[in-house]
Write a structure and sequence with these properties.
Blueprint (H helix, E strand, L loop, with lengths): L7 H15 L5 H18 L10 H13 L10 E5 L7 H7 L4 E6 L2 H14 L4 E5 L11 E7 L4 H8 L3 E11 L4 H5 L5 E7 L10 E7 L3
Parallel strand pairs: 1-2, 1-4, 2-3, 4-5
Antiparallel strand pairs: 5-7, 6-7
Helix pairs in contact: 1-3, 3-4
Length: 217
């Protein structure tokens, strides 16, 4: 699809259809917010390298819908932390789609988290907060219901760096491409992983979600 073909109304229509295919809906104000976030990302990316995916089509499918594909798997989580959020994914789309939940977004790269914080303020996303921090040193909050990561290290590495942030019955959601069966087998004792195949509308590539939780005695 060409740049001209995917204008604002067409982009929002595709996003609306995509989330409906995922099993939920966004209202017009939420669609507007995500469009505006995509515009801000493209504008800032012209000056600061935030992402290699900058086309409207890419932002729609590889960022927005890819992020939103985990909404049905958040369960009853009230507090979620997005570790290594980069340009704000999946945290920002999730916060817009789930206003009843509280989201903390952290990243160790200053220029990226500065953009995310500025965008949250500019778009008035009141259930999201951004902090410059690496997971292994983040100490401001704990007891999150969900820790979510997107393409950040192996499962064992991620668990080592983020496990302490989880509530006793919390879950780590790791977004992956191909099913990381070997990584699941290598999880430390006391943890178990479930691999779920994700469907991302418009994306012809494998996507999986690994749900990691403590084994109950």
């Amino acid at each position: 699809m060409t740049q001209a073909a995917l204008d604002e109304s067409g982009w929002k229509a595709r996003l609306d259809a995509g989330v409906h295919e995922l099993g939920f809906d966004l209202d017009q104000s939420q669609l507007d917010l995500l469009w505006r976030y995509g515009v801000m990302l493209r504008e800032r990316n012209a000056h600061v390298n935030l992402t290699s995916i900058v086309s409207p089509e890419g932002i729609l499918t590889l960022h927005m819908l890819d992020s939103l594909s985990v909404v049905p798997h958040l369960g009853a989580a009230a507090r979620v932390i997005d570790v290594g959020t980069g340009g704000g994914f999946p945290g920002i789309p999730l916060a817009v789609a789930c206003p009843q939940r509280q989201f903390t977004l952290i990243d160790g790269t200053q220029k990226k988290i500065r953009f995310v914080a500025e965008a949250i303020e500019a778009l008035d996303i009141r259930n999201a907060h951004a902090h410059a921090a690496r997971a292994e040193s983040y100490a401001a909050e704990r007891n999150f219901d969900v820790v979510i990561v997107r393409a950040v290290g192996t499962l064992s590495e991620v668990l080592h760096n983020t496990g302490r942030l989880l509530a006793p019955h919390g879950r780590l959601l790791a977004m992956k491409g191909r099913a990381p069966d070997d990584e699941v087998r290598d999880l430390p004792r006391g943890w178990r992983g479930e691999v779920i195949r994700l469907h991302v509308p418009g994306l012809d590539a494998e996507r999986h979600l690994v749900v990691i939780s403590r084994q109950q005695r």
